[in-house]
Every structure is written in structure tokens, then in C-alpha cells.
Amino acid sequence: MTSQNHDNVAGSGRFVHQALEELESYFLDPSYNLDHYISCDGESQGIQFPAQTYEQRCPVDSSIASGSYSFYSSPSAVSFSSNGSSSTQPDCVSDTNNSIYDNCLSVSRACSLDRENDLENKLGELRPLRPMLGPDSRVVGAGSRFSVEPQLSKEAMEIIQRKNLKEMLVACAKSMADNDLFTSEVFMSKLRLMVSVCGEPLQRLGAYMLEGLVARLASSGSSIYKALRCKEPTSPELLSYMHLLYEICPYFKFGYLSANGAIAEAMKNEARIHIIDFQIAQGSQWITLIQALAARPGGPPQIRITGVDDPVSAYARGGGLEIVGQRLSRLANSCGVPFEFHGVAISGCDLESEHLKIQPGEALVVNFAMMLHHMPDESVSIENHRDRLLRMVKSLSPKVVTLVEQESNTNTAPFVLRFIETLEYYLAIFESIDVALSRENKERINVEQHCLARDIVNVLACEGPERVERHELLEKWRRRFAMAGFAPFPLSSFVNSTIKNLLKNYSGNYRLVEGDGCLYLGWMNRNLVASCAWI
């Protein structure tokens, strides 16, 4: 089949509009979920994913609908239950007693054999050191015996008296950056009584940010971040948490819909399409696109998908990438679409062009959905895999490259600015969740703990290569793509109108902003997710 066999230019325009309508209908259909699809003939296929098919990363990657996200894509967070079990529902009554401070230390001790002495011992050793105490410490004693008695500064005492949670969180971060351990410890002891995983959005977020501060002070951020893998919920539990987040917030549907719209437009006359997804997770993004392309006038194109994934994702998926390939192959077969799947179980840092098996004559699509921010850049290592990956992709001459990323600046910002940025960004996320689920809803608690908290801890507690959550604003991504030789591919008005229809199903506080051919999805006055395309 060749592109000349397909519709003319006018027909192509109609197809793109029709394809976007198809994509929108599947995203808005309440019967559509991550584990069950409707075939092209409308008959329910009932293809169930294995129970353990969820991607570990939630916010941060292309896995929320599929399965960091990680927004995500994100790695799951430890559950702060009294017995330390991640599968136990949190107790809203006793969450301040079973504090994050204590649980964070216990998790670190249990999961890291080479862990330093616990935080209390470390603070006890450091308190006698004058430089650590802050400007208002004083020496007291009688005769020849003297001791150092730490004193809070007047500013710190005023902050404590005001009892403003946001102000105290930021002040604690600043004292930590100043290496004032005594003031940091006092602030943390006060914060323990102010945060709650069952409270208002700021209280809930504060609980996880306090965890990050404790981990950073104990120099155990990387240990806790890694150790939390041993506290993963079971795959069915993680499946339900991630699916719930996907349903109650439009962030991931926005990303998938905008990227698929750009791809449908760029591929409207192509007979052979090769999609390279650099964070395929379970491949759910491509279900709606395959169904839309199956209805293309003149017949469907031949589709080949290369799914790139880190081998650690196999845990959540319950197996290797062959599970994704089998799932998409069954769908394509039901739709009458010629289909081939190629799995590449390798980290993006190790990926080379020969792993992708590019074939002559195929139109190449590259998809970066919530993935590139995990690649270390020039601030981490001289290899600079973030820019190396973009240059490699450009050398493959793709027809279109799609980018979906969190609109946040945490990559190279100093610690205090990174802390404030994380606070503001995730507060908007927690507020949007608060509108969708009641504060007493234990599933909401699990969603926040297992889909968001671990990323927050990593941003605050880890440094160097251990800090893998390194978000950048779209303006910085623009510069990186331009340096790699790419040019913008503006998203069409069809995509814009389709997403506006999507947002009608959610709170009126969500907003869609268009600028320079890119789209931003925000909550009130804060942009949260950015989507764009490049050629």
C-alpha cells in the first residue's frame, strides 16, 4: 500500500477531524477503562490485563492511563500505617501519632543495611557543634564547665507563633539549607502536629514534604527512595490507585489526546507508520489511535510500534514487554489493522539507534510522554543523556515527535527554590484531587501516597544521580529541541477544541492555554502539564 492510494488533501483534512472525534469519544466514554477495550466493530472484547500490569512510575511517564505518570508516572510511596504495611489503609484518627517522621526512619532502617545512625542519634551528635546551632546560641555554665545551649532566632519563634503551615515548611527548608540543624529539628517537631494525610490539601501535601525533609536531613534520601520499592502495594492495588487517578483528573488524558491528535494529523497520508514510544508502560495510549486509524478513508495503514521501557517496570506489569505487544496485537487484529510490535527492554540512558530497528520507507513517529525528565542532563553527568537522546532521535529523521511533560522547574534549581516550586506545583495537584474525592475517602489517601508522594520525596531528599525527578519548564525543552535541530509542529485547532470538550467533564477550575502552537493544562492560575510537537 502507498500513500497515493489514500484520500486526497480535502479527504485527509476530514479524516484528521474524524480521527480526533474518535479519540475524544473513547477518552470520554465512561465504559472505556485501562483493562477493557471496545473493538472496532463495537463488540466488547473483554481483554483483561494481567492483574500485575501497572507501570511503577505514575506521574512521571506515559503510564498513568496505561498504568508514573508517574504523573508519571510515578513510583509508589510508602504507606504511613501504624504497622508499616503499604497495603493497610491509613488510620485518619491516629495519623499524627503514627507520624511520618517516625515511619520514615523505620522504613529506612528496615530497607537499607548500610543506613547511618537514625536521625535522633545524628542530631544528638551534632547539637554540641556551635556552627550548627544558628546565630542565637549562647554559652552557659558555672566555673570551668560550660555547655552550648541552642536558642531559636526571633524570626523562627515568630514563624512558629503564627502557625502558618506553608510558611513553616519553607522556613524549615531554609534552615536546612543553612545547615541550622537545631532550628530544622524544632520546625519539624512543630510540623508533625500540623500535617495530616486526611486533612486539607496543604496538610496532606505537607505530610509528604515533611517526609522529604526528614529524609534529606538524615542523608538517607536515596535509601528511602530505593527502599520504598519493598513497600510497593500489590499489582491489583496499584492498578486501582492509578486508574482512579486517571479517571478523576484530566492531566493524562490531556497528554495522550494532544499527542495522538498531532500524530494523526502528521500521519494522515502515510501507508507505513512506525511509532517509537520511549515510555510505553502498558501501551494504553495507542489503543485509541489504532482504533481511529482503522477508520481512515482508503483503509488503515500498516502500524509498527517499538516500545522502549526500563526492565524494572516489569514488576508492575507482571511480565515483560511481550504482554504489551500481545495486547495491542489483539486489538489491531480485531480492527483489521496490519500490526507489528517490537519491545526494547532497556533504559533510555543505554539506548542506541540500532536498538530501534528502523526500516526504510516507513514514516517515523517518536513519543516522549512524561519520560524525558527522568533522563540525566549536563548538570548530572558529562554524558548528558537528555540531549544525547534528542540528537539521536533527530538523526532518525522522524515525521513528528511529541512531548508531554510536567510544567515544573526542579532540575537545576537550588534546594530552597526547588522546595518552593514543588510545594506550589503539587498543591495545585492536591487541590484538584480534593475537588474530585472527599477527604475521608481512603482510596484518595492511597492515590496520593502511591502515585505522588514518592516523587515528592525524591525531588526533596535526593541529589546527583539519585534524584531522578528532574522537571523543566517548556521554555527549556524548546531550547533543547532547537539545539538538537528540531522545528515546532503547531498543534491544530482540532486538537484544541477536542480537549476543551474533554474538560467539560471536569471541574471548571481546569483551564486550557494555547501559546506558540503548544498547549498547557492548568489548575486555576497554575500550568501543570505542557504538550507540544516537533519535526
TrEMBL record:
Region (SAW): 461-535
Motif residue range(s): VHIID: 273-277
Pfam families: GRAS (PF03514)
Stretches the record annotates as Leucine repeat I (LRI): 163-223
Top-rank taxon: Eukaryota
Record carries keyword Transcription regulation: yes
Sorted UniProt keywords: Transcription, Transcription regulation
Keyword Heme: no
Chain spans, region Leucine repeat II (LRII): 323-355
VHIID: region residues: 242-307
Family the entry assigns: Belongs to the GRAS family.
Name of the featured protein: Scarecrow-like transcription factor PAT1
